Amino acid sequence: MENSMRPRTILRTASLLALATSFSAAGISVQAADLASAPVYYKSPPIEPFNPWMIRLRVLGVLPDTAGSSVNVAGAPPLSSPSSGLSISDQAIPELDITYFFTKNIAAELILGVTSHHISGNGTLNGLDIGKAWLLPPTLTLQYHFTDFGPLKPYIGAGINYTVFFNQTAANTSLAGLAVTDLHIRNQFGAAVQFGFDYMLDRHWGLNFDVKKLWLRPDYSATVNNAIAVTGRANIDPWLVSGGITYKF
Question: What is the pTM of this model?
Fold first, then answer.
């Protein structure tokens, strides 16, 4: 009886050992699978602080559009282009602008530059040398910058201009017996709109192209032959076309 029980006991023991080995192997497999599927964490890249300042150095072309300028001679009916008016020379100057970003999309831009222009007559006054004047036209615009085009950063803006006229000089050059002997142009506010883009070459440096339109129509007064008073409005209304280098801090 005792001898017949031994094979059964041995079989049961072997079965239990095999079962235990199976569970142990399954546990090891599950543990290995868990280890294999565990997420791998990488260190996130450092977030660079947002710097709101940008500057640009550009070449600026000032292109006046004087259509509709008026010339009023004391004691005579007013004259206006094209029968008689003013012509103001184009000019190209270096220009600096400073931009401050309130957010990544909203910014304010201030442009600074000084330009000199020659003024002459047209129409019935064609050839009459009127004089020269220097212009300081600081322009402040509020801009919206689009940020969904990769390195291309287009923007639009609108704002205000205040032009200061200084070093005004009458030509005092005679034409057909007429010579402008005194000239004064009043400082003037004007509206401005703009569009342009920056193309960023890297995080700091880029190229810029910009176009602005100013509505600038100052009153002026002049004296001809030290005796004849002349007044009017100079519709300067310039286009400001510029291109240059951008630096983002």
Answer: 0.76
